[in-house]
Amino acid sequence: MSILESAFSRMFSSPQERGVSTLINDFSPYFSYGGIGTSNIKVKESLKLAAVFNAVEQISNDLAKTPFALYQDINGNKERLVNHSADFIVSKQPNYLMTPYTFKKLIGVSLPLRGNCLFEIISYNNGYPESVKYIPWDDVTDVVLSKGEMFYYVNGYSKPLMSSEVLHFKQFSLNGLVGISTITFACMQLNLALKTQEFATVNLDNKGVRQGVVETDKVIKDKPGIVKAWRAAMGEKSADRVVVLDEGMKFNPITITPQELQIIEQQKFNIEDIARWFNIAPHKIKSLEQSTNNNIEQQSLDHVSDTIQPLVTNIEQEFTKKLLSSKERTTCYFKGNINVLLRADIKSRGEYYSKMGTIGVYSRNEIRRKEDENNGPDLLDEYLTPTNTYTEKQIENNLRNSKNEKNPSA
């Protein structure tokens, strides 16, 4: 038996026999597969809440809109490596079934709902990445840490996948190796929100009629008949239905009303709490009560910096670590351009470009490229410098050049 076969034979045995740490089993109370802890809420059930669905949709859409590209740092200048296979995967075609948008959106959906997102890296014979294959986190049966290497046991795979063979994006983590979903921690709050929503639905189905008892001081001989008559009357779909209680009978409800439960107030609270769980501004999930024209722009900036930027950084580093060789990582890196999420109205964008172009941060051709315009004349590649910000050396050079032009023989 070869060394490799011997190693794999140990992997196929149980974790106890292997003498290794199984990350999923050790932390199983925190993980989200089909169900969540002791609550009966499931991931798909949580998406029935409009605030949860919209939070995941907004985060995944913003992540999907963020373009990623591979760059190389050459003496302080970055150069786009468009011919590298890793850049092609990230920016053009992750695999023949997905576009870059759906690839990134899948990551944005899986992380908050599952805590993890896994892709197998398919490589060419020369070792360069060719494509990536999505692996649903529910198909991962175990994650094992053995001698400094992680192994992923996946349904349908005859051998475990090593960490170098997968892109593993993880969200909040207690060990830095396997993520935990937002749904896992928020299950109690989300369960309350679902129950509130269910109560409102049932109350509407029952047309506001509640459970209760019929009281009377007299002895009633035909009790089943009274119950049957009551149900028949209350089951009518007519809006002008009338129920008559005679013989001094009274109906006393035994359930609490939506008003007593403060359903509307509870639903508003649930929306705000869901926004906190998903670290997203309330206005992004269409809750505008606390938003004004003055603060909504700042909230949008906070959304990019506090919600999207951490995800982008997470993905940048995983791409760089797994899709590049150790030698390439010394000068090459992936970068997600979140500027596309910060595009304001034309007036604000024009003022921004004007300032950046005037102080020499961008050349005018660079500004044109940012607006998806073709390059202008070569003159527009020159950087502008305001005359009132010249250094003493620049002033001296300008004076010297001016004197030389006036007196060439000097």
TrEMBL record:
Entry-linked InterPro entries: Phage/GTA_portal (IPR006944), Portal_HK97 (IPR006427)
Span list, region Disordered: 371-410
Biased composition (Polar residues): 385-401
Protein name (database record): Phage portal protein, HK97 family
Organism: Flavobacterium johnsoniae (Cytophaga johnsonae)
